[in-house]
Design goal:
The complex is a heterodimer of chains A (about 350) and B (about 625). Chain A is α+β, with helices and mostly antiparallel strands. Chain A has nine helices and twelve strands. Chain A has two domains: about 190 residues, Sandwich (Immunoglobulin-like); about 90 residues, Cupredoxins -  blue copper proteins (Immunoglobulin-like, Sandwich). Chain B has about 625 residues and is mainly alpha-helical. In chain B, about 60% of the residues are buried. Classes of the chains: A alpha+beta (about 350), B mainly alpha (about 625). At the A-B interface, helix 1, helix 2 and helix 3 of A face helix 4, helix 8, helix 9, helix 10 and helix 11 of B.
Chain lengths: ~350, ~625
């Protein structure tokens, strides 16, 4: 008897603290920073609240009925000792058919309303920074990295992208190979990235900052390492970023020039694009402004010279299964290469 | 003429050898009790692998950036974990229990098609072995148990793993479909006199509905598997967008099977709980009719909700809303059952033994799994938590807290009937409490992990995102679950050896199987009883005042003939299944083995057709 109470109390206490801890963490859906994300998290609180009430009521009924009617008398009972052999009760059965149905009807109504808000971008539009009324971004999922194009702005980048705060961003997603899923937990719902389909999502971020994104549909060996970052900038910072992304790389001297030669004459240009040069490969990420990014290689590595060295020396050691081959370059070559890549701001 | 005589002589020699060899007898059994035990033993065998796979998963994920398993190995492990637990553990254990118990429950001597029953078992078991052999033949399947296209295409999955997956699924799928036909015919035709459909035990009802689900859902999966095999091996474009196909075709067909599949896993569990709760409460099931109708409703509705697994693929929002609505509607019949179970306990005199503990635990855990399921029907919530650990939490609460707990309930409940011995109650209680604690610690934090943004099917994760503590906790919980499973295994082993004698009716139960000896004789019932109510055995023990106490009449010439019944057994199911297995290997490697396998199958079929009927398997 006492054990039951202790266990039940412990359970509820632990559950409550669990729920509270949902309010932390750099990728938490409970800390949304977009308008639609907030709609969803509010709906979550309502539904979880209803679920918690149902949980408490029904589990309590279960526990009480066991505790109240447990019986230590040794089986088999005599006929006179049998409890009343009740077969049913129309009133109660109707009650607990109607009650869940009504609760679910209300939840469904909330679902419909919330879905409309989340699926459709606001009609009024918002202060636009660019010429277009809304910011359009095309996302392409590759095994195992993310490509971001801004068709109106002629920007192509990978692994991270910037958006201005308080602007409606329309995102279209497509796949270069298998099914992926584009998800920024703090922004709101994800959308699957399916070959042969062009899917859409949108968001309007209301808080500046850096937010984590991750592929959310199993896509093969390195699905776990297919991440990206979204930077929500002030309008001024965003413009600065756009201009720097649109600019072509400067000329380089010295060790960096050696590195540039390696890129242009070697295998690199077969897969990668560096705008303003003869490297126009479309298989791997665009490297034009690689040095401006915080992360690379599908978000696996922080963008530091040491990590670049690790990656260039042996990509498969860092990300097994990657289609980037091991380059037959000497350590000196790699140093020059890194020197060049560091100039691509 | 002489040739035929020779063949008959060889057959007789073979028959004599088999009869003299205990293992050969067990493997060639066609008796439903023998086949049921084979299913249960095979299911337990594969469960060891399934649990090992989950241990590996939790060890890898217990800490961030762990290097215990590479991505390539982890992906095979989690794919096989799901495939094993669903197709090689949960379904066979449920079907095995049903096989053993249902003929006894309805007062029949065997299933309608005993050899077909054995064939179902061998298709499943050899299909499972086929699947597992992939580990040493170039790599196990690694595209997830759900095998989404185009990841499964040869271009992205070059090893033979997915071929083994497709063919293994085909073999086990044929097994369940054939088995379900057997159950439907048996349940509809072989009930004892007086047992109308609405006097059948509830486990029989749920298995009837489940069998219909299987025969309508499994072929969809079979077709999907064949299509992906053709895509991979003959360059067909069914699922390749670049060639005019569509990856979503796979998903629609898969989930059209996949959703009924989860009800295939849970409806028998509902039936098992509906047997145990009334017995230990000393009352009839509260609202028998509601349980029956809600089971049928769930069966129908389960075919209308499949795309709630696809809310993210970019369907029209109207489609989203329809599937959302249906997914919420299906929660109503489910919650009716939960209230009816509690109402059965209410006002009863509850004998808290291990089967009851696990049945109560089932209800407690399933409430949680059901509530998280309802939250997933809310499309915008699903938009956030789909493909995260929130889903992993939901599915494990309903499959482990639900189906697995029900299987364990049934194990404790029917172990005495099957073996004639009682299991140890203290070990049972220890198993129960450690299971509850272990499961909660393992799976509850996963709700949180999903809300904190952790996707599923990832072999590692970076630290510092708030996921580390919950992952470690989940891994610790897994350790507790493993310990509790060891307690269970220990209880099984020592109870088999020296458990107290159980007698016919250790639980003061209500249905016909408890009127037989423990274990039941080969012929089940010397005289098929005539049934007058839903609780025929209970009525024998507690007759109404107006009734004369109905002594089971097991005297008479018919009874003596019945007692001579010995199930015939057959080797043709084994031959046919081996043939199919060889054909499957041939298909994987595109070799002449295909022809060899087909010849084997034909030989088995001829043996089947030519086998003389020497058993006394009459009603």
């Amino acid at each position: 008897m006492k054990n039951f109470r202790v266990m039940t109390g412990l359970f509820f206490g632990v559950t409550f603290s669990f729920l509270l801890s949902g309010c932390e963490g750099a990728s938490s859906t409970m800390l949304p920073v977009t308008t639609s994300g907030v709609v969803i998290s509010n709906l979550m609180w309502i539904v979880f609240g209803v679920a918690a009430v149902v949980f408490v009521v029904v589990e309590t009924l279960l526990v009480i009925s066991i505790l109240k009617f447990r019986h230590k008398q040794k089986d088999p009972l005599q006929k006179a000792d049998l409890p009343e052999q009740v077969e049913g009760n129309q009133f109660f059965e109707t009650l607990w058919t109607m009650a869940p149905a009504i609760v679910l009807a209300i939840i469904f109504a909330l679902t419909v309303v919330a879905l409309q808000t989340v699926i459709n971008p606001p009609q009024d539009g918002s202060t636009a920074i660019t010429n277009a009324n809304m910011l359009n971004i095309r996302v392409t999922g590759h095994q195992w990295w993310w490509q971001f194009d801004y068709p109106n702005l002629k920007i192509t980048t990978a692994d991270e992208f910037h958006i201005p705060v308080n602007t409606v961003v329309m995102v279209s997603v497509q796949s270069a190979d298998v099914i992926h899923s584009f998800w920024v937990p703090q922004f709101g719902g994800k959308i699957d990235v399916i070959p042969g389909h062009l899917n859409y999502t949108w968001f309007k971020a209301t808080k500046t900052g850096v937010y984590n994104g991750q592929c959310s549909e199993y896509c093969g060996e390195e699905h776990a390492e297919m991440k990206f970052l979204v930077m929500v900038d002030t309008p001024e910072d965003y413009q600065t970023w756009v201009k720097s992304q649109q600019a072509l790389p400067q000329d380089v001297l010295g060790d960096a020039a050696t590195g540039k030669q390696i890129v242009l004459t070697g295998v690199c240009s077969g897969c990668h694009t560096i705008r303003g040069t003869s490297a126009v490969g479309k298989i791997g990420p665009d490297l034009t402004h690689l040095a401006s990014r915080k992360i690379f290689s599908g978000g696996v590595l922080e963008n530091t010279p040491d990590n670049l060295k690790k990656w260039l020396t042996d990509p498969s050691a860092v990300k097994p299964g990657t289609i980037m081959p091991k380059l037959s370059l000497s350590p000196d070559d790699i140093t020059s290469l890194i020197a060049y890549l560091e100039t691509l701001k | 003429m002489t040739a035929i005589f020779e063949v008959e002589k060889q057959q007789q020699k073979l028959r004599q050898w088999i009869d003299g060899n205990k293992i050969a007898r067990r493997l060639t059994t066609t008796d439903h009790k023998g086949v049921g035990l084979l299913y249960i033993q095979a299911g337990a065998f594969f469960a060891i692998f399934g649990i090992l796979e989950s241990i590996l998963i939790r060890l890898q994920l217990g800490s961030p950036e762990n290097t215990l398993l590479t991505g390539a190995v982890y992906n095979q492990v989690f794919t096989m974990h799901g495939t094993t637990m669903i197709f090689l553990v949960a379904m066979p254990l449920l079907i095995g229990l049903a096989n053993y118990i249902i003929p006894l429950m309805i007062g029949a001597r065997d299933m309608a098609f005993p050899r077909l029953n054995a064939l179902s078992f061998w298709f499943f078991f050899l299909g499972g072995l086929l699947l597992y052999s992939s580990f040493v033949l170039g790599g196990a399947p690694d595209a997830g148990w759900f095998a989404y296209a185009p990841l499964t295409n040869g271009q992205f999955s070059p090893s033979h793993g997915m071929d083994f997956w497709a063919l293994g699924i085909l073999m086990t799928g044929v097994s369940s479909t054939v088995g379900s036909i057997n159950f439907i015919v048996t349940i509809l035709n072989l009930r004892a006199p007086g047992m109308t459909l609405f006097k059948m035990p509830l486990f029989v009802w749920q298995m009837l509905v489940t069998s219909f689900l299987i025969i309508f859902a499994m072929p969809t999966l079979a077709v999907d598997a064949i299509l992906v095999f053709i895509d991979r091996n003959f360059g067909a474009p069914f699922f390749l967008a670049s060639m005019g196909g569509d990856p979503l075709l796979w998903q629609h067909m898969f989930w059209f099977f996949g959703h009924p599949e989860v009800y295939i896993l849970i409806l028998p569990a509902f039936g098992l709980i509906s047997e145990v709760i009334p017995v230990f409460s000393h009352k009839p099931m509260f609202g028998y009719g509601a349980i029956v109708y809600s089971g049928i409703a769930i069966g129908f509705l389960s075919f209308s909700v499949w795309a709630h697994h696809m809310f993210l693929v970019g369907m029209n929002p109207i489609a989203d809303m329809i599937f959302s609505l249906d997914s919420m509607i299906i929660a109503v019949p489910t919650s009716i059952k939960i209230f009816n179970w509690i109402a059965t306990m209410w006002g009863g005199k509850i004998n808290i033994k291990t089967p009851f503990l696990f049945a109560a635990g089932f209800i407690a855990m399933f409430i949680i799994g059901g509530l998280s399921g309802v939250s997933l029907a809310v499309v915008p919530i699903d938009f956030q938590v789909e493909d995260t650990y929130y889903i992993v939490a939901h599915l494990h609460f309903v499959v482990v807290g639900g189906t697995a707990m029900a299987i364990i309930t049934a194990a404790y409940y029917w172990f005495p009937k099957m073996t004639g011995r009682l299991m140890d109650e203290r070990l049972g209680a220890a198993h129960f409490w450690s299971t509850m604690v272990g499961m909660l610690i393992t799976f509850f934090p996963m709700h949180l992990l999903g809300l904190l943004g952790m996707p599923r099917r990832i072999y590692t994760y970076q630290g510092g995102l708030g996921w580390d503590l919950w992952n470690m906790m989940s891994t610790v919980g897994m350790g507790i679950v493993v310990l509790s499973t060891l307690i269970f295994a220990w209880n099984l082993i020592i109870s088999l050896r020296k458990g107290l004698p159980a007698g016919n009716d250790p639980w003061n139960a209500q249905t016909l199987e408890w009127s037989t000896s423990s274990p039941p004789p080969p012929y089940n019932f010397a005289v098929i009883p005539t049934v007058h109510s839903r609780r025929p055995f209970w009525d024998q023990k507690y007759p109404a005042e107006s009734e004369v106490k109905n002594e089971p009449v097991d005297q008479g010439a018919d009874a003596d003939i019945a007692r001579t019944f010995v199930s015939q057994g057959a080797i043709s199911p084994i031959i046919i299944s081996l043939g199919l297995m060889v054909t499957c290997y041939g298909l994987v490697y595109m070799s002449w083995a295909i022809a060899v396998g087909i010849v084997f199958m034909f030989a088995g079929i001829i043996g089947w057709v030519a086998q003389p009927n020497t058993s006394e398997a009459k009603k």
